[in-house]
Design brief:
By secondary structure, this protein is mainly alpha-helical. It contains 70 helices and seven strands. The longest helix is centred in the N-terminal third of the chain and has 24 residues, at 253-276.
Length: 1440
């Protein structure tokens, strides 16, 4: 019966609610209520469809009398509940119908609910007939909820049986929907626990349904469905875990069975995950999300969750253990985090979240000891643990325990476990764990290793390593060979057996030891031989570029390792390329090897042809590579990393960095490289050009770092951020090729493009430098090529040297970069031990540049030096960081705030951060005056402040001078002398220094000011204090000019130092070099230190003229006159000192005579000023007289020789004739003859001295033919030899090994350099060979000549044997080879010996000569022995 028939005609069908609502208009009476109840029962009785009744109850109407709005009008039931009333009505009907049909009310209610449930779900099947939908729609879900509310009412009335409901439902549905079970469980009608207990087939359908649900993807617009899907999975997982792993005492057999069943279902799902992990199934990811500690903890206790996770780890480790140990050893390189599927890595992270690293490793050890394991899963888990937890120490301790236990019980399983775990950690990079070579060296390469305790342990280790050889990747074998285990000497044979086996295995793998590379660079990732050869070529080219010679290693390889040299090294070196127009270092090395016959001609020709073809192909080459570009992959990975930095997820960042490292190893092949981490990276500062791809990659890396820093700093200061920066930089340090490119790019930016960098770029690069400094212990050192620095430097210091402070623009960039770096380092190092952290983070080189630049650029910083800003001291480093990131325009204020900051000033107390005076001088001397930010007056003010107010008063242990003015001057003098020689000129000091552009003139002025101040302050103290200043200057010079060895390098260094010193000498008061002392009440001039300095140092660098420079000579003579006027009798003091000089310092006397024409007006004028027109001292007047006498002889006028020293007279003649024109040769001959005619001893000594001076000219002409005329000096020497040949004993002074008459001419060794004296016999021999036969015959007749000639020959022979004989030029087109001079001299000596009678030598002379010739020339010794014993040639006489 329909509702319309019961109530009469109506316009539409009305619901029960609307009908009932219409009856509440009138005030109900008791009789009306009874009638209404009877009418309702009659109506329900006539309504035969109970499903329609459920539909009626599912659509509440606003007119319902049971609605809250109408309850106030309902006097009969103010406490009534609509659901309760509806459930009561429905229950009454179900009871009535069950009674009519003769069935139980429970069966009736189950049937009715299932019919309605089927009606709801049937609509879904009709909608999705083409595809299976695992979840309900939102409308179905709403209907189901109303149905379940009514069902719950029936359950509360006791007329519904849940078990019967499930049985009937399972009879119709083979695969029940999990969402339906979820809602039944949620409404507590039928829980999943009860289903598992009652349904014996749950083991078959539940895993299948869970997998189907995981594999189903909800539409994008059904967000509610996605959320409920995850809740369904969480409910299933929570119930299963609780049933399987909750500990309940006294479990009955059925309960134990249920627990095992649930555990089995969980294992089934876990195995499904492991089977699909390689496919990266998204469904697996949904189930992995249920392994969440916070979500699952709502269903189960923490203890049960721990037991479940532990059980799951065990199942993973032992799942399908099909890989053997040998397989693990071979395949291990492919099981890093970067190569593992993300789903498996995510699963490991979920399971490890609630445990500590120690607990996880302890459990892993237990599983390894008790089960057969899947090595791939175990090792991937170790990698994930290291990368995401960043804790290597527990693994190190586990490895130590495993090794110790393995050697105690000689357990091979623990041994292989330790090796596999150590190698797995090493594969993740040195930023995560020890490199394999470091671990192996630490464990086995020392005498304290576990294997070193006994021979049995040693044999155990070597046997183990030998068993691994057939399966070992080659890089590990190379480590074992390069760093073999420690073995006592008596057991060395055991080790050699293993090394032989390993080398054989490498040869079988076509990676023999011979292919290990010339420089022992072994890669951890299995670097190919071709990559190793390319690295060898790079190193060889670098060494050739820096030294100009082929490396000895390359030369040895071309002989002893010829197969590698020919088949690996040369092909890598001769790889075809487009040759540059200007030959580079590689081309020069190839040419050098070709000249040395190290490159086969055919191979070289092929190389040249290939390079030409490469150049032609390069012009028309088209880029058609369709593969995925690694650069594009890298861009995406770096963009994702930037987003992860903002999120602060350490584990995800580590995993992403692992992927980035893998991509970079493709772009920069051959790395990461564990054994090359300690190698030296070459940085060519002159050529920083990189390949275009490398430049793009490096720029992308640097931009990513800068952007990541800015993003991370928007929310947190550096000390509140995670350690993403250190990990990022460690990634670069693992790849030497990449690191080299980064270093070249940073050098280019800092050195050449600093002014063009924006504030954000400077901030990012400064932070990058800070992290490089923090990773200094891990990174390699850098060798700067084409740079004055010879020793390798840490990377941060090497890059800091690119930051210049020499110009206005560079100074500003240096300050901004340094301030940013120090501020970042101070904030980054803000920790419980801030000073230690700040030392690790702040580059000392940049900090020192700030100490130099801030007071220089900001005068207010000089006044506030040492003061601490109170606000900054209280607030810490955060205000510094906020000022540098938020107030970029007002960076000058940030500079001053940093300068006054307490932490900044505390750093200066540490030795490595102190800017000592010598470093300050080095910075100041590099400033270009014409581009300085300071004017001349400002620079003078700043330098005076720094010298006198800062470093003079600062204690020595803090880099100052401790108030010692001498120490200040000493360091200033040393710094000036350290400058390049081109900045120092003796003739035009001011112009030269100004032209060079440095601040050398300014610091010379500071030195003058300090010395004058010392002189003025010491005058009041008397002569003793002045003498201290005098001694101090010569002591500094003596230390600088002391030769370290007899090498050419040492001699050249001495020459440079003395030239620099002479430049300084000319800038100081001349009187300082003469000591004024008082003896017996008389003031005298003491020049002993000056004489010692000239004889020891200046003499050695006076070649080729063998005189002091005119400016130095004038300066010293002016000093003598100025010092003498302070004595009681100045004229007599000058005469006394000059007379001593003639004996003790002849070089100064000869120099004065040489330059007298220029000096005499200056000195006489100075003396007249000092002595009010008094006549010059007698000794100075005699110099003029000697010049006049020499000029008269030059004009062929007879004049008496002045009463002057012999050397002065000879030097006057030498200066008059030898410095004149060629046409004066006849006048010279006349002058020599006139002196010979005098026949006086002094005249003879003058001629001998003149011969010595002329012979030095001849030697200089031979050595330097472009500067002097050889013919002129040869003529003068020949004339003098002709005169002095009769007194050959005087000629002995020209023999360097003569021992006779050592004191007759002491000035010989005091007026010439040591090299000149040694070469004097060589000059004499070459001169004799050019004399006429008549002269030689006459010379042989002179007594003593042959003796002198033999000594000359022995000296020449000694020079020849030592390799010191030069090639001489006697004419413009004629050169004398050393062997020719030696042979012809020997022939002359031998022929002369055969011609002279035995009486020409005394027996003592003959014995002495024979003794000297015995080792040098036995032939000459035999000839002399004949003269000593002439009868030995007659056998008859010997017989008689």
């Amino acid at each position: 019966m329909s509702l319309s028939g019961f109530y009469g005609p109506v316009s539409q069908k009305r619901s029960v609610s609307s009908l009932l609502a219409g009856r509440v208009i009138k005030k109900p009476k008791h009789e009306d209520g009874q009638q209404l109840q009877e009418a309702a029962i009659q109506l329900l009785d006539q309504h035969q469809n109970l499903r329609s009744l459920f539909q009626e109850l599912e659509s509440p109407d606003p007119g319902n009398i049971f609605s809250p709005q109408k309850q106030e009008q309902n006097q009969a039931g103010s406490e009534a509940n609509p659901n309760h009333i509806s459930g009561w009505l429905l229950g009454s009907e179900l009871r009535r119908r069950a009674e009519q049909l003769g069935v139980s009310v429970g069966v009736m209610s189950v049937k009715t609910v299932l019919e309605r449930l089927t009606e709801i779900t049937d609509g879904q099947e009709e909608m999705d007939e083409n595809r299976c939908r695992e979840m309900l729609t939102s409308s179905q879900r709403m209907q189901l909820r109303v149905l379940l509310e009514s069902t719950k009412e029936l359950l509360s009335q006791g007329i519904l049986c849940p078990k019967l409901l499930w049985m009937e439902h399972r009879r119709n549905q083979k695969n029940p929907k999990l969402e339906l079970i979820y809602h039944l469980h949620l409404y507590n009608i039928l829980t999943l626990d009860s289903i598992i207990e009652s349904d014996e087939s749950v083991r078959s359908w539940l895993p299948r349904q869970v997998k189907a649900l995981c594999g189903w993807t909800s539409p994008q617009d059904e967000e509610e469905t996605t959320q409920i899907l995850q809740k369904v999975l969480l409910m299933v997982a929570g119930v299963l875990v609780g049933a399987a792993f909750e500990v309940r005492p006294d479990l009955a057999a059925p309960e134990r069975k249920i627990s095992l069943l649930c555990s089995s279902v969980l294992d089934d799902m876990l195995f499904w995950l492991l089977e699909t992990e390689e496919k990266c199934d998204k469904g697996a990811e949904k189930w992995i999300q249920t392994f969440d500690a916070s979500l699952c903890g709502a269903f189960v206790s923490p203890e049960a969750l721990q037991r479940f996770f532990t059980h799951s780890l065990t199942q993973i480790f032992t799942y399908n253990p099909r890989l053997t140990v040998s397989d693990a050893v071979t395949l291990q390189n492919g099981w890093t985090v970067g190569k593992t599927s993300p789903s498996l890595t995510s699963l490991y992270c979920k399971l490890a979240a609630i445990f500590s690293v120690e607990q996880l490793l302890q459990h892993l050890q237990q599983v390894l000891e008790t089960h057969e394991v899947n090595w791939k899963h175990v090792l991937c888990f170790v990698s994930s643990l290291l990368v995401y937890h960043q804790s290597a120490q527990p693994l190190k301790e586990l490895l130590s325990r495993l090794l110790q236990s393995a050697f105690e019980g000689y357990d091979l399983e623990k041994m292989i476990t330790a090796f596999l775990l150590a190698r797995q950690g090493a594969l993740e990079g040195a930023g995560i764990f020890l490199s394999y070579s470091d671990w192996f060296k630490m464990s086995f390469c020392g005498s304290t290793g576990c294997h070193a305790s006994s021979k049995k342990s040693l044999v155990f280790l070597l046997k183990f390593l030998s068993d691994l050889v057939p399966f070992e990747p080659p890089q590990y074998l190379k480590v074992h060979i390069l760093h073999p285990p420690y073995v006592p000497a008596k057991h060395r044979g055991l080790l050699m057996e293993y090394i032989t086996l390993a080398k054989t295995r490498l040869a079988d793998l076509k990676e023999p030891v011979e292919d290990m590379g010339l420089y022992e660079d072994v890669s951890s990732g299995g670097t190919s031989v071709q990559c190793q050869a390319a690295q060898d070529v790079e190193k060889a080219v670098s060494l050739f570029e820096s030294t100009g010679r082929i490396s000895a290693t390359v030369m040895e390889a071309s002989i002893f390792r010829r197969p590698y040299f020919l088949t690996r090294f040369l092909p890598a070196l001769l790889k075809p390329r487009v040759l540059p127009l200007k030959p580079d270092a590689q081309m020069n090395l190839i040419e050098a090897l070709k000249k040395a016959d190290k490159i086969p001609a055919a191979q070289y020709s092929s190389y040249v042809e290939s390079c030409q073809k490469q150049r032609q192909q390069n012009k028309t080459a088209a880029h058609s590579d369709t593969k995925e570009d690694p650069f594009d992959i890298l861009k995406v990975q770096l963009r994702d990393f930037t987003e992860l930095v903002v999120g602060g997820n350490n584990g995800e960042m580590s995993a992403q960095l692992s992927r980035i490292s893998h991509t970079l190893s493709v772009i920069f092949p051959g790395s990461p490289d564990e054994l090359m981490r300690q190698a030296v990276v070459t940085l060519n500062t002159d050529c920083t050009q990189l390949p275009e791809l490398h430049v793009k990659v490096v720029n992308l890396i640097l931009r990513t770092f800068c952007q990541s820093l800015l993003n991370a700093s928007r929310g947190n200061p550096p000390n509140k951020q995670c350690s993403w920066g250190c990990r990022f930089v460690s990634l670069l340090l693992d790849n030497r090729h990449l690191l080299s490119s980064v270093a070249h790019r940073l050098w280019e930016l800092f050195h050449n493009q600093g002014a063009s960098l924006s504030a954000s770029h400077i901030l990012g690069l400064a932070a990058f430098m800070v992290h490089i400094q923090a990773s200094m212990a891990e990174g390699p050192r850098v060798q700067l090529v084409s740079h004055r620095q010879h020793q390798p430097l840490p990377l941060a210091d090497a890059l800091s040297s690119a930051v210049l402070c020499n110009t206005h623009i560079n100074m500003l960039f240096s300050v901004r970069l340094g301030v940013a770096a120090v501020c970042y380092g101070l904030c980054r190092g803000d920790s419980p031990s801030p000073q230690q952290q700040q030392q690790e983070y702040i580059p000392s080189s940049l900090y020192k540049k700030l100490l130099y630049l801030i007071p220089r650029l900001f005068p207010e910083a000089r006044r506030s030096s040492g003061s601490v800003c109170p606000d900054e001291q209280q607030d810490g480093s955060d205000p510094l960081w906020s000022s540098i990131t938020h107030d970029l325009s007002n960076w000058k204020k940030t500079v001053l705030n940093l300068w006054r900051h307490a932490a900044f000033q505390q750093l200066e107390q540490m030795p490595q951060f102190r800017l000592c005076f010598s470093e300050w001088l080095n910075y100041e001397l590099r400033v270009q005056r014409h581009e300085d930010i300071l004017s001349d007056s400002q620079r003078q003010e700043y330098q005076q402040w720094a010298c006198c107010e800062v470093y003079l008063t600062r204690p020595e242990e803090q880099g100052g001078c401790g108030g010692d003015m001498k120490k200040l001057c000493s360091q200033l003098l040393n710094a000036i002398m350290d400058q390049p020689l081109r900045d120092l000129s003796l003739e035009k000091p001011s112009c030269s220094a100004g032209f060079s552009g440095t601040c050398l003139p300014d610091l010379l002025s500071r030195l003058q000011e300090l010395v004058y101040e010392m002189e003025v302050s010491n005058v009041s103290g008397g002569c003793r204090h002045r003498a201290d200043l005098w001694d101090f200057l010569f002591e500094v010079v003596s230390q600088r000019c002391s030769p370290s060895s007899a090498s050419i390098t040492s001699k050249l260094g001495l020459q440079r130092n003395l030239h620099k010193w002479n430049r300084v000498l000319l800038s100081l008061p001349a009187v300082l070099f003469f000591k004024i002392k008082i003896e017996s009440g008389r003031t005298t001039v003491d020049c002993s230190r000056l004489v010692e300095h000239i004889n020891q140092h200046q003499r050695k660098v006076c070649s080729p003229d063998s005189v002091l420079a005119c400016s130095v000579t004038a300066h010293l003579l002016k000093g003598l006159l100025c010092a003498a006027v302070q004595c009681e009798r100045p004229g007599e003091e000058v005469n006394r000192v000059w007379s001593q000089m003639s004996i003790s310092c002849p070089l100064l006397v000869v120099s004065a005579v040489r330059w007298w024409q220029q000096l005499s007006p200056l000195l006489f004028s100075l003396w007249a000023r000092l002595r009010n027109g008094e006549s010059p001292p007698e000794q100075l007047q005699r110099l003029s007289d000697c010049w006049l006498w020499a000029c008269s002889l030059k004009r062929s006028q007879v004049a008496k020789m002045p009463e002057a020293a012999v050397l002065v007279c000879a030097a006057s003649l030498h200066g008059s004739f030898c410095r004149g024109c060629e046409e004066q040769q006849q006048s010279f001959s006349d002058a020599v003859k006139s002196l010979k005619a005098e026949r006086g001893a002094e005249h003879k000594q003058v001629l001998v001295s003149l011969l010595f001076l002329c012979l030095k000219d001849y030697l200089s002409a031979l050595l330097y033919p472009q500067e002097q005329s050889c013919e002129k000096s040869k003529h003068f020497c020949s004339e003098l030899l002709a005169v002095l040949v009769n007194s050959a004993d005087c000629l002995l002074m020209f023999s360097s090994n003569a021992s006779s008459e050592p004191n007759r001419y002491p000035w010989v060794s005091l007026t010439s350099s040591d090299d000149c004296i040694r070469l004097m016999p060589w000059a004499l021999c070459s001169l004799l060979l050019q004399q006429s036969a008549e002269f030689l015959q006459r010379a042989l007749c002179c007594p003593g000549f042959l003796h002198a000639a033999i000594l000359w020959y022995l000296s020449v022979l000694q020079l020849f044997l030592e390799g010191d004989t030069p090639t001489m030029t006697t004419a413009p087109t004629e050169k004398l080879d050393p062997s020719q001079v030696l042979n012809r001299t020997k022939q002359l000596v031998l022929s002369s010996i055969s011609q002279v009678p035995p009486a020409a030598f005394s027996s003592s002379q003959l014995r002495q000569l024979e003794c000297q010739c015995a080792d040098l020339d036995p032939e000459l010794a035999a000839a002399l022995s004949v003269l000593l014993n002439p009868h030995s040639l007659s056998p008859e006489i010997d017989f008689i």
